[in-house]
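Assess this one:

_____
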Amino acid sequence: MGRLRDTLAAAAIFAVLAAPVASAAEAPSSSTPTTGTPPAPASTTTTPAPVVQGSTLEAPPAVAKPSKPAGSGGTSAGSGKKGAKTKASAPVAKPAPSAAPAPGPSPAQTLTIPSVPSSTCAAAGVPPILVPIYERAAAAYGLGPQGPAVLAGINEVETAFGTNLNVSSAGAVGWMQFMPSTWETYGVDANGDGVKNPYNPEDAIFAAARYLSAAGMPSNTYDAILAYNHADWYVAEVLANANCYAPVFGSASTGLSAAPPKLQMLSCRPAAAHRREVPAQYLSAFEDAAARYGLGRRGVWALAAIARLESNFGRGMDRRELNRAGPLGLEPNEWKQYAVDGNGDGRIRHSNPADSAATLARLIWSRGSLRAGVFAHNQAEWYVQAVLGEANRMQGRCKVTYTDWSIALPAAAGSYVNPFGLSSNLVTGRVDQGVDFTGSGPIVAIGDAKILSVGAPGWPEGGGVLYQLLGGPLKGQVVFVYEGVDATVQAGQTVKAGQQIATFRPGGSIEIGFADAAGVPLSHTEYYEGKVTAYGLQMLSLLQAIGV
């Protein structure tokens, strides 16, 4: 790596939108706890066709109760949060080669999963055939009385109880949407057929229970769910579902509540012997990157250690090497796959400490633990030990705070109209790259606009309208309306504010946000599955300002 191997600025979002933005360039799962060295997976798995409501699935045979996960390694779930403990590090074992592909559903042994009501708060929506699996899995891993409902809540959010088994944009697979690397660690052969199969509901649900247990449940349910998907909106949605499903499992509610989404802030000071060594610009970059990708306090010092070992904070690299690898020694393939605009200036520069730190933090986060991420950066155990040792020496104090997302509403929102003013049954969903909605009826342009394209290949349901605003404070900005819509306009057409551009598809959901002229969301470079992005929040604030 490099020489060794040879902030979200929410208050300024409106200003960012008003400036030209470079075309966007994926990211993975959340901060993951690790447990012991589990048995190697028995097989690889093949991805079945997505399951639709009313289809049949493999029936789970009788369960062999697995043991609880053993000792820990890497960083703990929720690292950096109040009350979280960092567990002792241990080498990460590589899985043994796979043996045989996982079998598909047996025609002779299938069960019918009933259609799931569209309301996420319908206790009757939990398929009865899954109820005993949630209960057995929660009991096997000691998740407490709220465990079955939480597992059901996660299952609904992730795959709608197995009715949508598509591989996620981040690469997560199966009934409970595990990243392949996380499945290697937590996969369970719960039905005793010799195969750990994420597409088998029993194996997947037991694996999720094992993961939640390792992440701190039942003593710290909130952070355990946050480790599953590092987004506060996700925890809120899972807990809302769990409270709704609790009567299915014999209780009035789980007794759990969710806080609104918060932005984590880290403010750190190195150990006394290293305070003059770490430049303030670099320390700020490490704090922002570790907070953004949920690496916690330990992540700050690991990034600092890597920057010191790779380039001595840029001092030990010439300009050419800084421009190629950056001060944290990233290889071209790492930049290509994980590049992040860390300082929000609309471009990615390898030599910039914020861009370099955010890119490496994203890579580490994608591997599920700090140790695994450092190893992915340089596949040498001596390097991992050197980084972690140096991080221990540099580690000082970090103050962790949580702040509300502070978004300034556009001052001239009166220039635009509510895109859902003619719609009905409107329900606001999550905020990520844009803002999700379900509803029915017409969707209109928020301002005078030129239609750039219709359709959204590669997005769920494939529908879409992309248009550029011709007036108002956001003149020149491009708005996307993607997924469950049928366009009523054509590319090249000019429309007036309030003119219909699309219609909700029955039962579908849509996402609206800001994009570049090619239709790529502006948040794409910072987005990973479940992340609440700055551009998504900017669209939310605009919509709220114009009456949505």
Summary: DSSP finds 16 helices and 16 strands in the chain. Confidence is low (pLDDT under 50) at residues 1-120, 405-412. Residues 296-311 form the longest helix (16 residues).
